[in-house]
Amino acid sequence: MAKKKKAPPKNDFAFEENNGETANIKRSYTLRASTIRKINELKSIHPEINVCISSIVDIAIDHYHNHIINEGGIQ
């Protein structure tokens, strides 16, 4: 009899599929307390009530990347 895989528990750092792409790499970063407050503020006003912090970070990095690479922004 095949064992049924359990779904991992949902937490704030879980990651939903975004643009057809699912996260499959884990990294660890150290952030300032002020950065965490900003992330939590964004989470609290996000239209999707169950948005994961990883999704917010992914969107923010995509936005920053586009600004620097495609729009000629300054780092």
Strand content: under 5%
Tally the beta strands. Answer: 0
Radius of gyration: 16 Å
- The N- to C-terminal Cα distance equals 56 Å
Find the structural class using helix and strand composition: mainly alpha
Return residue spans where pLDDT drops below 50 for at least 5 consecutive residues: none
Shape: extended
Q: Tell me roughly what share of residues is in helical segments.
A: 40-55%
Pattern of helices and strands: HH
**Biggest beta sheet summary:** none
Number of helices: 2
Overall pLDDT confidence: 83
Give an account of the 3D structure:
By secondary structure, the protein is mainly alpha-helical. The protein has a domain at 33-69. The chain contains 2 helices and no strands. It has helices at 33-45, 53-69. The longest helix has 17 residues, at 53-69. It is extended, with a radius of gyration of 16 Å.
